[in-house]
Amino acid sequence: MNMIFHGKDDREMNVMIVEDETIMRLALSTLIDWESNGFRIVYEASNGYQALQYIKENREIDIVITDLKMPVMDGLELIDELNQVIGTSPHVVILSAYDDFEFVRKAFKRGVNDYILKSEMDPNVVLNLLNRIKHDFEVEQTMTRQSREIRNGEKVRLKQQTIREWLEIGVSPQSEPSILEDLNMRLEWNSIIISLIRVESSAEVQERYGSSIGEFVSSVVKSIDQVLTEVGTGEVISCNPYEYVVVLSFRTSSLMYVRQHISQIMNQIIFVLKEYINIQVTIGVSEMCEEVKQIPAYYLQARKNADLRFVINKHRIIYPEDARHFLKQSGETLIGKEKALLDALKEGKEQSVLQELDKMFTLIKRSASMGNEVLRTRYMELLMILVKFMYDNGFVNNQEMNKIEDVYRMAWQIDSAAKLQTRISSLVQQLLQEMDKKAGQMNRVVSVAQAFITEHYDEDITLRKVSEIVHLSESHFSTLFSKVVGETFKEFVTKVRMEKAMEIMKKEPYLKIYEIAERTGYASTEHFSRVFKKVSGMSPNQFMKTVSK
C-alpha cells in the first residue's frame, strides 16, 4: 500500500496496532522506544472494525500493524476496507504466525509487502522495517504519485534488464561502479554468488493460479526480496514463473564466511516461500565469482546444479561440492554393457537381477554432467534392453506391452531419476514374476526349500536363511511358499519337526523330553512341549504313554 504525507517535515509517524490478544499488543508496544525513533502509537484496536472506524474519523494514521486472524473483522477484511477509504492510504504491516501462509499470500495479492513474524519479533528487525517505511515516506513527499510510479517502475525495469544482461553476456568493462548506486542495487563488484531457484510442482502452481500467474510471480519476487532486504545484500529477478535468479555479493572472500551466510539466506528463502506462498523449491548455488566478466559462466553453473534435482533429492540446496560427485565422469551408453544383467535375468535369480539393475542405474547417473535429456536417453536405452529380452524369451504379451508403452510415455514427464528408476524396477519385478510362472521356477524353488527343511529340521531354520539359499527376497519367497504349499513357511517347519518328534518317540520311548526337543531343533523344552500339545492335542508325556502300551 502507498502512503500520503500528512504534515510538516520530520514529524513523528502515527502508528496503529490492531491485535485481538492483549498480551501481543503489550509486547509490540513495549518492544522498542517508539517516540525516540520517530514513531508514535496513537491507537490500539482489538479488531479490524474498531481500527476502521478510528481511521475514518482520524485520517492521520501512517502505519497500521495488524494481525490477520481476529474476531468481528479480520486483517484481510480491514485491508479491503482501507483500500476503499478516500483520503488516506496507510502503510500496512501484517503480523503473522507460522501457519498463516495462506492468509499472507492473500494479503500479498492485496498489495501488502511487509510482515512481522510473531515468534521472531526482534527489536532490530522491527525497527529496521519501520525506518525503511519512514525513509520511503520521506522520499515520497518530494514527488507526485504519478512521477514516483513512473520513476520507480522505470528503475525496476532497468535494474532487471541490467541483471539479465549480466547473466547472459557479462558485465561490460566500461560499466561504472556508480550503476549499482544509481539503480539502488544491494550488490558490490566482488565475491559474487549466483543462485537459481526452481519451483517444484509447476503443474500444481499453474492449476492454482491459472490466468493470475503474474500475481504468483510478483508474490515470489516480493518474498525473496524481503529476505534480501533484511540481510542487506542481493537482488532477485524472475526468468519465468518457475525459475528465479538471486545474485549475492559479499565484502569478504572468506569462503567459510560466505558459505555460512549463503546457507542462512537460502534456508530463509525456502522457509518464507513454503510458509507464505505454499511452494517448495530446489536451489542451485554457484562457486564464488571473483571477476564480474565470469558471471555468465557461474550463472550456467548454478543452473546445472539446480538441474541435478533429477538425480539428487529435490527440495534442497545443491552446492558445487554436491554436484562434483555426479560431474566427474562423462556419460556412457549402456549398449554393450548389458550382458551381466541379461545373464542374471536368464537365471531368474531376483537378488542377482536387482544387483545388476542397480549397477546400470549407477552407470546412468554418470551422465548427469551432460544434462537431463541425455539422462533420460540412457534410461530409454535400459528400457529397450529389457524389452528386447522380453521379446527374445517370449515373456511379453499385449498387456505387458501396454505397461511398457506407459513407461515410455511417462519417462519424459517424470521429474526425478528416483521416480523413473522405481517405474523401471517395477517393470523388472513384473518380468521376474512372469518368468517364474512360465518356467515352472515357483515349484522348483519351493521343492528345494522343502528338501532343505526336511533334511535340516534339527537346526536353527529361519525364513531368511532359506530365502538366501533359494536366492529370493524374504517377502517374495514367503508369498511364493505359501501359495505353492498351502501353508506358511513357519507352519510347514513346525509340521515337519512334530512329525519327526513323533517318529523318535515311537522308536526310542526311553528318551527324555529335552533330548527329543534338542533332536528336533528346539532349544527350550517348554517351547517344544507347548507346540507339541497344540499340534497333537496332548503333552509329550501323554503321547509317549500311548505309544509305549
How would you describe this structure to a colleague?
The protein is of the alpha/beta class and 549 residues long. The chain is built from 24 helices and ten strands. The protein has helices at 22-29, 48-57, 75-84, 101-109, 123-140, 145-169, 178-182, 202-209, 213-231, 255-277, 295-307, 320-327, 339-347, 350-365, 372-392, 398-411, 417-439, 441-455, 463-469, 474-485, 489-507, 513-519, 525-536, 540-548; strands at residues 13-18, 39-45, 63-67, 91-96, 114-117, 192-199, 235-240, 243-249, 281-285, 317-318. It has a five-stranded parallel β-sheet with strand order 2-1-3-4-5, sandwiched between helices. Strands 7-8-6-9-10 form a five-stranded mixed β-sheet, sandwiched between helices. Helix 2 runs parallel beside helix 3 (75-84), helix 14 packs antiparallel against helix 15 and helix 15 (372-392) packs parallel to helix 17 (417-439). The longest helix has 25 residues, at 145-169.
